[in-house]
Amino acid sequence: MSFSKIPGGGAFRPLGQDAVAKAFTEGGKKVLSVLEQYKLWLDKAADPDNREELLSVKDDDEGINDRFFKSLAFGTGGLRGVIGAGTNRMNIYTVGLATQALAVWVQNNGGGSVAIGYDSRIKSDVFARETAAVLAANGIEAHIYKELEPTPCVSYAIRKLGCKAGVMVTASHNPSKYNGYKCYGPDGYQMTDDDAHEVERIMKTLDIFNDVKHGDFDKLLAEGKIKYIPDEVLDSFIECVYSVSVHPEVFREAGLKVVYTPLCGTGNKPVRRILAKAGVTDVTVVTEQELPNGSFPRCPYPNPEIRQAFDAALELAGKLQPELLLATDPDCDRVGIAVRDRDGSYKLMTGNEVGAIMLNYLLSERKALGTLPEKPLAVKTIVTSYIAERIAREYDCELRSVLTGFKYIGEIVTDLEKKGETDRFIMGYEESYGYLVGSHARDKDAVVASMMICEMASFYKLKGKNLLEVMDELYSAYGYYINSLKSSEYDGEEGMKKIASIMEKLRGSVPESIAGSGITRTRDYLLSEEKILSTGGINKLTLPKSNVFEYILADGCSVIARPSGTEPKIKYYLTAVGDSKTAAEARVKELSDAVDELVK
């Protein structure tokens, strides 16, 4: 007899028994057991891809359970999951359900149109077309890019076209088996928590097969209910990006030599276009990673934070000897770099380092040119290096820290715009290689970041320095802040329980010290509380609630734990400060070892 674990049942029960995990209701909708869901999908999911996969696991209890033990949650950013058949997978049915809920949300909020984009991932174009067709079948005008485009281009199009919402089909830097569905509000940043929760609530009232209005994409396109986003929108985006250049003259003067890999994603055309417009003419693209390919050859994990993403580019660099390497992730909202050192080797720079250089460059050079606003403002996330605070203070720049998630930076830019103070915004960035200069987009933008990085490299090249040397100068001036990210991954249903257990332990069992330094404060962003351990005092945190916990140590170091919102893992953000780079790096290693002991 076949068995499967039933969520909430607490035991393994025979799949064939009628007693298996009887249905309950949620949001007025019947919720089926794993077996009932599987049988329903066998009956209703008629398309070849899903049906073939469902039949292939008919004798695989683990496989059935993993596909149906839960439904993909519409989190604060939308959907993200493995591509495949089932309620816990990305497919045309789960995408259709989310889109139907989005359509209801748009109608409930006065109506309007929706802008849609997609990247190079497997089925991204299929899911984007399905999104457009469901929206149009609900009477909502859908604007879709003709071909794959970066995430910031969707953010821009929403505001340019006056849309009520936007959708970007992407799983960012996840492995190729993943895809995702990011939702944006009318201001161009990802949906607020309240709006996302409302869409999720609507989803729970809908039947995935009976309540979704499907349509024929080509027919709706011919009828004008679906429209391609005109080229003029992308042209305007490029002009906006170019307009934020501080020293446009340095590009041609420096003659910077660049190797670029779009990692088989959306950055290929727009990044090359903006660099050519700026005057960076010596750009060589990594051939095997140039064209769209959702399998990501030579880079199964297309994340510019990791060295493997640069393997092909570094191989080419060994032949061409460029001064700079650029790598944008598949949806081109993040960019990583490697810089040629004096000895001819290439060193990868972290997001914290590139962000610090960029912030310092913008503040110092705009001050020198007299274009720095009277009350400059920059934004970073709470897990981004504290060196930003030292740099901002040097130029009397207000620096705000927000929760992880670029939408919080987008909200600040939008608030400035409403007050007529957009010119105050210098930049926003996060340690995970996301940057925004200018207010054209309300999400991180690797197109503008690629241009700014090349501009900085050109500017400092004319002064006889590379970006590694500029960073060393900042460390010498402001302190050696070394940041490290470590992650622990836990897959499946048991993994979700493990992540919850670790976070509960970190909150409930606060040690006296970590790596030999006493803990002076803890910050629980879920409770919005900062505890002063020496006095027992409690300060209220003003940021939105989030499942993040932070230890602040007496020696200025810190440890932050945050379950990922897009992957089955906990991320630990470690910050160390030292009198030298060597000392700070050694301290980070001690913190990392201490975390391993802490979460055993």
Notable characteristics:
single chain; about 600 residues; alpha/beta; Alpha-D-Glucose-1,6-Bisphosphate, Chain A, domain 3; 4 domains; eight-stranded antiparallel beta sheet; six-stranded mixed beta sheet; 27 strands; about 40% helix; globular; disordered N terminus
Characterization of this structure:
The protein has 600 residues and is of the alpha/beta class. Helix content is 38%, strand content 22%. It has four domains: 1-69, no CATH class; 75-229, Alpha-D-Glucose-1,6-Bisphosphate, subunit A, domain 3 (Alpha-D-Glucose-1,6-Bisphosphate, Chain A, domain 3), CATH 3.40.120.10; 237-478, Alpha-D-Glucose-1,6-Bisphosphate, Chain A, domain 3; 480-598, 2-Layer Sandwich (TATA-Binding Protein), CATH 3.30.310. Strands 20, 21, 22, 23, 24, 25, 26 and 27 form an eight-stranded antiparallel beta sheet that branches. Strands 5-9-8-6-7-10 form a six-stranded mixed beta sheet, sandwiched between helices. Strands 12-11-13-14-15 form a five-stranded mixed beta sheet, sandwiched between helices. The longest helix has 19 residues, at 351-369. It starts with a strand and ends with a helix.
